[in-house]
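Structure, all two chains, one model.
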Amino acid sequence: MSWIPDRYRELRAALRGARVEPDLTEEFENHIQMRTEENIVSGMSPDDARRDAVRRFGDLDSYRRETRVIDERIVRDRRRTDSLDALRREMRSALRSLVRNPGFSLIALLTLSLGIGATTAIFTMLDRVALAPLPYTEPGRLVVLASPVPGVKADAVWGLSAAEFFYFKRQSRALESLGGWSSGKVTVSGNGSAERVPAAFVSASMMNVLQFRPVAGRMLIDEDNRPKAPSVAVLSYDYWQRRLGGDPQIVGKAIDISSRSVQIVGVLGRGQELPYERVGLWLPLELDIDAQPVNAHYLSAIGRLTPNATVEQASAELAGFTKRLPELFPTAYSDKFMTETRFSTRVTGLRDDLIGDLGKRLWILLGSVSLVMLIAFANVANLFLVRSEGRRREVAIRSALGAVRGHLAWHFLTESLTLTTVAGVCALALAYAGLKMMLALAPADLPRVGDVHLAWSSVAFTALVSLGAGVLFGVLPLTGGAGGGGDVMTLREGGRGMTSSRRQHLVRGVLVAAQTALALVLLVASALMLQSFRNLRGVRPGFVATGLLTARIDLPYARYQTYEKVERFQRDLLARAGAISGVTSAASGSDIPLDGYGGCAAIFAEGDAEQKSEEKGCVTTLTSTPGYFATLGIPVRGREPTWSDVESHSGAVVITKALATRLWPGKDPIGRGIRGNGSTPPFYRVVGVADDFRGIALDKPVIEGAFYPLMPIPGADLWSPPRSMSIVLRTTSPHPELLTASLRRVVSELDPNVPLGDVRTMETVVARSMTRLSFTMMLLGVAASMALVLSAVGIYGVISYIVGRRRGEIGIRVALGARSAQVGAMVVAQSVKLAAAGVVAGLLGSLAVTRVMRSVLFDVSPTDPLTLVSVSALMLLLAAVASYIPARRATRVSPVEALRSE
Amino acid sequence: MVRLDLVKGTLDMLLLKALTAGPMHGYGIAQWLQRTTDDAFNVEEGSLYPALHRMMERGWVKAEWGISDNKRRARYYTLTAAGRKQLREETATWGLFIVAVAKVLRANPA
């Protein structure tokens, strides 16, 4: 064996190292001796001869010292290259032996890579999302302030009002500083083009709270927030680089934001961003401390705790402040408001607020994949045992012949370490690909997802796990299984199973059953998700998505202040867009289905009796132009409003069938009146009832919606002119996105300062509304396929092991006349029996687990019998297939050989 | 008799050249050098050893213990392929050096 000469050579090198000095002494002395002898031969006296030889040699001690240093260096270097060589040779021999058993190696590699890869991916998610510190100075001191109002809606949470903001900021002792912001998009125009840019309107204090530093110019200061202050802006680093080419002279220049000239005063450093979103522009919020307090909670707020304050202290302090609101600001906060809404102020650590319970979910997920990984390890350990069964005699003989135990261990160790190292590399690649796929499919609102990438910590994690597994598998064959304490026993017993292995037998059986159960649960869950997904795809949204193109159009406030201006623009726009070749109709609405129908507003219906109306709760309320329903492909009973309705302020509205049924059950809604605020006339008149359609999400009920006209009727104002609307184009093309350029041209011809944003096909919108489901489905699918592979490997390993152990018995059966088909069937039956136990356990498990899935399932029962039966059958079939190879091996047992080896 | 000091760096070349004849021990090399040059160089024999061992470290020569003609244990040094190559290079450089020095000495200073 290769390690013996290596060890020997190493030993010799070490000895040689110790002999450097005597060797040199001998060499030099002999040199002088030879010179002396030659001198004598040429006629010198012995004394002179010796003296001459020494003189010619020079300073013996100094030469010896010099040479010794060199020799010692040589020995050290050689020792190092020798051991490296030894390791390289050992690994090469391990690789060869792995390649010689491709079946074993591939299965072990696949199992390990999957197990480690999945765990690495989840670990990376957890590490980046929940464990990595937030990118702020002392992030632990940052807290989020918000106002839950369970009285309004169970999970409704508002921001702060300006009055609260000033009050808290000035009075709080627990908070060192407090910043507020509200975000939106602004239109930046110039050079004949316009762009919508995400922006944060902030209090100057926000930048102190997050402790930002500018890389150029200055940050915002309190004066910028004063009313009538000059318009200024601070750029994010990213926006400065990306849109303005990193212009070093940018500070002091002006840009056109929403038709106003704004001076750029500074640029923030790289990576200085809001915790929740990325914005390009930081604009000062107008905050007037002297303004009349208003009950408008539009400010998101983040505070920085004073160094020793806790979240609880801040909470208690702010709760006290909140109680005093009605007393301090009676015009904004009535006692009635406080009790009815159950208004309070909540303080949460920024990290908790940001990642919510995602951290906890990721820990659970990591726990489960680690479990799966451990099962994978157990399986591979089993495979190693199965293989070492075959080597038992080899090992025993070798031990008997005097191979040192340490050498055998070293050999097994390099072999398993080589395998797990390769597996670790594959696992990293898998984790990388898996993360990429997960991020591509992840719902957009998953926090900190942008920060997720394979980091050094992930690599370290993989390395640690792979090495740990390698050591485990390397040591395993030396304990219990083979070559261990019972070397001599092994020889004497002829490798036959001993009674002590009965317990191991049982443990293996339980392991296989448990894996089968786990795989079954996961398969059932993912099969249910798959069906939900299919059902969801089958849902008719109520509109025709094919051929629809949509885009967002935001009119700048400064130039479109009145209803008339907005109406004129929309009318011109729709006329021109409708004339684009390939477009059959065009319309606009304040939102499009499945993309922004989230909010709701109050509605009052004209009463039947005595013209008195009553409030009918919160319904989806939008503005739409004539042709909205026709363009979306939603049938309308009655009629849609026309442009002459709009012009004459006739107040013609369309409501959905679901709303009509709720407002006036069993009665004809056409001609009846509604309005959004106040319960006295005038009313908007229902002229049409739209067929029901899905507005919020495909798996949510159809909406109850009211669609108001562009122009309000006098005396019943709408909220404000609908400057921000989505345009929809019905086209004859299967690829409506090809018309984007034409639409863009039409818009910029009308007004070059109006940007076109969010251009998408309606099919994209529909697909995106399914991401939540498809993401969960993908994760479950991956887990289920992993579990499937794992349990196949597990069954294969155990059955092979059992067949190996029963060779003798099988040989006797064959000798007594059992046919090979009978032997094969016996082995397969044993495998199926094991799996059946797992299936029973798994069915019970999935009944418990899938119950909690009810909320994500769509139109499929968690106990869908067809799913349960077919998945169970699949598992049993898998067990039969996995035992095929060992069964074949059993049928080939030759009775003579088997009995001889007994 | 005038004894010459060795030009810096030439000792290695001389030792390599000596070994082209076959394996030799340190004393043998000293003897050969002395004979070939009529004892022209002022070299202490002990200084051969650090030089030889340094060349061993660089892989130009190998060493092995053997028995000398007069039945003493001695370390025999052998030229390696790398050593042969080194000798060729040094010889070439030396040739250029000699030619250049000769040109300078023959020239008429203007």
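The longest strand of chain B covers residues 61-67.
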